[in-house]
Amino acid sequence: MIAMHDSGLGGLSIWRAVRVALSDWPITYLADQAYCPYGPRSRQEIIDRSLAIGHYLMSQGATILVVACNTATTVAISALRRELPIPIVGVEPAIKPAAAASRTGRIAVLATQATLASERVQTLLDTHANGVEVLRRPGHGWVEQVEAGELDSALTRARVAAVVQPLLLENIDHIALGCTHYPFLSPLIRELTGERIALYDPAEAIARRVQSLLQQHGSDSIGDRCYRFITTAPDTQPMASMLPLLIGHGHAVESLNLE
Ligand code: DGL
Question: What is the mean pLDDT of residues 173-195?
């Protein structure tokens, strides 16, 4: 089984791509909504939650773990790799391809505060920016809007415009979406940027990576092609009601108490 987790519903942007690339694999998706958002939390809290979730998903039969969250990847992937004996795929802002493709020599990366402040992002900048100027901007309130299912409300539009409009004056030609919630706001971002700024969503690259790791490890899909959706929130209804909007169809959601 392919296991995936995020602080909430953002990782479903990765789930969609993994489902298409590995259509005969069972996938279990866990949303840690009791602790969402991760962005403002301490490193230790994010590591503890990620480890507890990783162990739980292994107990459910995970063959591979996709950390479908930039914040958890930048903070907790080393601890996960030390503790769990399965392949682990993380997601990080696509600074490298965006910088390599830039013609104006200026790009932006949008992510949570925790991701932008992480050593991992600093290393990506040091190694791959190659003289390209990278503007770092947090999407204030964006995660909350996606969690609320407000992909196109007046407040969401205002929050997206507050970040993206100033960037239009910066002569950037690429934006790396460094939070898995943000691709759900791509239609609103595109309305502002038009075609002249390319958006980088790493979902398809992650799906290809999962595919190649499963091949390397000689794993075949096990069991029926079934999907599980789990939330750590006590009420499953909010997540269940948002699945049609975010992945195109409804599904039952289980609640899990990981305390
Ligand atoms: N979806 C997340 C990410 O990719 C986490 C957002 C949050 O919980 O703050 O960073």
Answer: 96
Q: What percentage of the chain carries pLDDT values higher than 70?
A: 97
Q: How far apart are the CA of 145 and the centre of ligand 1, in A?
A: 12
Residues 152-166, mean pLDDT to the nearest whole number: 98
95-200 is a CATH 3.40.50.1110 domain: no
- Per CATH, 2-91+203-255 and 95-200 having the same topology is answered yes
Mean pLDDT of 35-57: 95
Active site (catalytic) residues? 69, 179
Stronger pLDDT, 68 or 120, i.e. the higher one: 68
- Among 28-32, 55-59, 224-228, the minimum mean pLDDT is found in 224-228
Q: Where are the domains of the chain?
A: 2-91+203-255, 95-200
- Residues in contact with ligand 1 by the CB-under-6-Å rule are 6-8, 10, 36-39, 69-71, 112, 115, 143, 179-181
Q: Looking at residue 189, what is its pLDDT?
A: 98
3-state secondary structure the chain: CEEEEECCCCCHHHHHHHHHHCCCCCEEEEECHHHCCCCCCCHHHHHHHHHHHHHHHHHCCCCEEEECCHHHHHHHHHHHHHHCCCCEECCCCCHHHHHHHCCCCEEEEEECHHHHCCHHHHHHHHHHCCCCEEEEEECCCHHHHHHCCCCCCHHHHHHHHHHHHHHCCCCCCEEEECCCCHHHHHHHHHHHHHHHCEEECCHHHHHHHHHHHHHHCCCCCCCCCCEEEEECCCCCHHHHHHHHHHHCCCCCCEECCCC
- Fold adopted by 2-91+203-255: Rossmann fold (3.40.50)
Pocket test residue of 32, 50, 70, 142 for ligand 1, highest count of atoms within 8 A of CB: 70
